Amino acid sequence: MNATTVHLQSKDTDIILRTKPYAQLLYWGKPIQHFNQQSIDCLQPAIPNSRLDIDIPFALCPEEAVGNFSTPGLEGHRSGQDWSPHFTTEQVIRDERGVTIIADDIHAQLRLTSRIEFDNNGVLQTQNSLTNLGETPYQVNRLSVTLPLPERAIELMAFNGRWIKEFQSHRTHIDHCGYLQENRRGRTSHEYFPGMVIGTNAFSEQQGEVWGIHLAWSGNHRIQVAVKSNGKRFIQAEALYLAGEIQLAQNETLTTPWLYATYSDQGLNKMSQHFHHFVRQNIIAQMKNKPRPVHLNTWEGIYFDHDPNYIMQMATKAAEIGVERFIIDDGWFGTRDDDWQALGDWYLDRRKYPHGLEPVISHVKSLGLEFGIWVEPEMINKNSDLYRAHPDWLLQLPAYNQPSGRHQYVLDLQNPAVFDYLLERLTWLLGNHDIDYIKWDMNREIVQAGHQGSPAIVGQTESLYRLLDILQQKFPHVEIESCSSGGGRIDYEILKRTQRFWTSDSNDALERQTIQRGMSYFFPPEVMGAHIGGKLCHTTYRQHDINLRGLTALVGHMGVELDPVKASPQEQKEFSHYIQLHKKFRELLHHGNSLRLDVDDPQAMQSYGVVSQDQQHAIFIIAQLKMPTYALSGDLRLTGLRHDLNYRIEVLDMPENINPVNSGHTMKQLPYWMMESTTLSGEWLQNIGLPLPVLDPETAMLFKVSAL
Ligand code: GLA
Question: Which end of the chain is more exposed for a tag (fewer CB within 10 A), N or C?
Fold first, then answer.
């Protein structure tokens, strides 16, 4: 095989690249060991009539210049010139993690550097960089990362959403034009998660081939899946630049966000496992050995009504029910009595805390809990001392009015005075108080992102990263949660600087089932903030028993969101029960392999499980979302277990109305395995499964399987 071919291997996926005369992904799929130069030559396709006379190979950065009619990888110009560059590889550098391919266009005076890494979990990560080698500025409209997909990848699953309804999956067939997703909200967004899955027809959790991608970027993005007229298809992802946003001076370089991608030949579960292992080993490795502490967050308990003596009582009660980290939410600074005012005034509200935060912190610490606090540094209310002193600190186009969002505006983080002010205030907060954790919020979409008149989403996003990087360096022991009106900023790039996501402002367990499932395709459970709220949900006003609320929060990074002082003794007991259950299985939940099981009645039910790495233990949750479609709900086939082992099955938690004596509203008798001590082989459990009980809608149950 000639030296221009690079073969990258992981435990269950391979990649073959061509590096010269341009970078091209030749193969991405199952491991392949037996091939030679002729195999590579054999990739040369037929040339149909009445088209260009040669085959136009599809490079990692497709070019208009060679006769590629799809969206090019790069679009830009030098005052109207150099708009159709053609790059030729000059240098290929191999290293342990992957390959760097440097390609130049000496006429356009541009350099394109493509970096491709491949880890043992089968996750490919790639980014492109463009350097302007010319003396005059080069304007970049678009710079993307492109990966080819096979013709059999015909079905797409993407994620849409909104506030309190994040990560809703939808599916479509990809024909002809394909699919285009644009996020212009200025943050990762609830609306379009920057990730999707393309696969063979009707791929499921266990079946089918899938190619999953995630663009790690917290600003605007564009992702398209396109089908060319020769049937070839590709996925192209990029940070979306506003008009005039990017201009490169001589020797300046623009780099795309990282695109993370993985292939699975066994449906979505294996894809998720690739992503989860990759995140655990590469993105959140630093928190691997510390159990994720159970939270109590004060927001839904007291909102802006802060009284330190009362808050201390809350902490005492929290400790009693098993909480391990106590977080004071919004309302502790400036004159923050409601959400109309004080954002930006990061000084303690002495009316509410006359003796400072210290008494509360010492009390929390004396109970053995960690202490956390809420901030929203990127924002400002017009009703604030900060705005009265510095009206020009806004991210804005001063000639126009812009709408507020939650009565607030965005600060221009590229303004050094703003950046320094925030760094100074956060350093005061974290340096002078014994704080273990901050909940970093960002509660509005960005309109008129103007920095000195120029568009600034990219600069704003990179400045945020820089601020977080500095804080992480200065205060390495402080963990940060990324929150943005719930799940508006969830992506791998922000996760490199944070340890947890606030998944959604909805603590409605029924909504959460879908939201958390959507998020689980890309993120392991230990970064997914999941709280048990009160019986009456504060966002949807639905009511759920503790059983559904508890089992829904159990599987993430668990917390509670309530006023434990007001909770009745019965409620406290219930919260405590699920906290203890979570702690019992936390190690398994946060280090095992998560699975979403394919069920026979997917309209009405979903099931989630976690199997230990050694396949000795597992837990499974069945969540009955709606009335079962049929009188019976079918069988639950468990995956991830060893066929040759026998497993004991033990029901751990059921809806209150179901027990062996009284078997519920819609059942006369429970299935055998729920009444009798049962041992079955992994093979049986996978191929035949367990007959499901008939559960009431909006209830859940938990059982465990243990190898004998
Ligand atoms: C946002 C967050 C909430 C809470 C409030 C406080 O809505 O998502 O969890 O912190 O802000 O104002």
Answer: C
